[in-house]
Design goal:
The protein is an alpha/beta fold and about 425 residues long. It is about 25% helix and about 25% strand. It is globular and about 70 Å long.
């Protein structure tokens, strides 16, 4: 009997996982992808919509059409997973039985978790560019904005595309300079972290860029309330940041069905798994990839790409009754648009901080440094996404593991210099 793989989620992680599994396993298995709609969004493209540098229709395509021939697509919400029965119960009443389940349903925006945020968004005082409608609304609000206070606020971590709020701040600086009103705009970046970013070395570099561009940095700010009428972000320790327009990254959580599936997820709705093998801690026949996973790796599209190779090898081993040998090292790679036609690039993993050097080798792109070349890489990545990453192709010279060549890595204590 043909073995069945069910993949929950038709976004970046689910699509590339399905395509890689189809390519590697061929007709040995039946693969079905489930998602609630047929709108696949190129998330990095939403960053450019508020600045009229991209149109929403240009970053959205059909989910079903991104899947290889032979991969089934089922459009439905998921109600819950019966772990013991190896069944997925869909919102339309259908029950899918699986031999392997891949949870790839990403992260959900939860503005209702923050007091006053939903009301502020309804009143046009707060916006998020993390979904198409909000990005368009923010574009129109920025076009009307002629001066005042803009607060870019990350409510809580973790979030998908964790560098995107920083990129927005840098692009906003350029945007208002181009309009000739930068001196009338006060930009503030508000974060719950103790610095601009999660990694210390990159945090120092990015914090310095914020300072250079005149963007005030407010750290360790845990937003408890968004006061639309008073134009205030209020932290749980009663600190305040004023705004005339707030650009907010809401609290993120897992999809609702995870909470409806006893034993599958954690308190936030993310799915705990082994950070090396990507095997769920709930059951050995469940694997997790992308933003849905509760692991140390960043919730970024590149992570899903690097995880894809590991997931396929381990799913194949599991179906064959063999030990799981493939190990994910937490490899993360991000372009960071910094404005004025430049961008940075960072590359790191569980054990290595972002460092200077070049990626993926000595003749590659500059790391942790602004350059025009990185900006062009950021713009060109969209075609790479649709035609290489999503179809699940291997990239010669760029596997799942973080490359060390070309990096200025610190020398371990007691080790001779390289």
């Amino acid at each position: 009997m043909m073995q069945r793989i069910v993949i929950l989620g038709g976004g970046t992680a689910g699509t590339l996982a399905a395509n890689r599994l189809r390519r590697e396993l061929g007709h040995e298995v039946a693969i079905t992808v489930v998602d609630r709609d047929d709108h696949h969004i190129y998330q990095p493209g939403l960053l450019f919509v508020p600045f009229s540098r991209a149109l929403p229709k240009g970053v959205v395509r059909s989910r079903a059409r991104q899947l290889r021939l032979g991969v089934g697509y089922r459009q439905s919400a998921v109600d819950h997973v019966d772990i013991g029965g190896r069944q997925v119960h869909l919102g339309d009443g259908t029950v899918l039985t699986y031999d392997v389940l891949v949870v790839a349903s990403g992260a959900a925006l939860l503005p209702g978790e923050t007091e006053g945020l939903t009301e502020a968004m309804t009143q046009g005082k707060a916006f998020t560019f993390y979904e198409p409608y909000g990005a368009v609304a923010l574009r129109d609000a920025l076009a009307r904005f002629t001066g005042g206070r803009i607060a870019v606020n990350v409510i809580d971590m973790p979030i998908k595309c964790p560098v995107a709020p920083l990129e927005f701040s840098f692009l906003a600086d350029s945007y208002f300079r181009q309009r000739g009103i930068r001196d009338r705009v006060e930009l503030t970046f508000v974060t719950p972290l103790d610095g601009a970013f999660t990694k210390a070395i990159a945090s120092r570099e990015l914090g310095g860029l914020l300072e250079d561009k005149g963007v005030r940095l407010v750290t360790e700010f845990n937003t408890g309330t968004v006061d639309a009428a008073g134009g205030r972000l209020i932290s749980f320790d009663d600190r305040e940041v004023g705004f005339d327009l707030a650009v907010v990254v809401p609290v993120h959580g897992g999809q609702a069905y995870v909470g409806n599936s006893p034993g599958l997820g954690d308190a936030l709705g993310f799915v705990p798994c082994d950070e090396r093998t990507l095997q769920s801690k709930a059951s050995p026949d469940i694997f997790v990839i992308g933003d849905a996973a509760d692991i140390r790796a960043s919730k970024a599209g590149s992570v899903a790409h690097f995880e894809g190779e590991i997931l396929v090898r381990n799913v194949r081993s599991f179906l064959a009754g063999q030990p799981l040998c493939a190990s994910f090292d937490g490899h993360t790679n991000c372009f960071i648009e910094s404005g004025s036609g430049k961008a940075l690039l960072i590359d790191y993993n569980y054990d290595t901080e972002p460092v200077t050097g070049r990626f993926p080798g000595p003749a590659g792109l500059p790391l942790l440094r602004e350059s025009r070349l990185n900006h062009l890489g950021k713009l060109g990545f969209q075609q790479f996404y649709w035609h290489v990453l999503l179809p699940g192709h291997d990239v010669p010279g760029l596997g799942a593991g973080m490359p060390r060549a070309g990096k200025h890595l610190p020398v371990a204590a007691g080790a001779p210099p390289a």
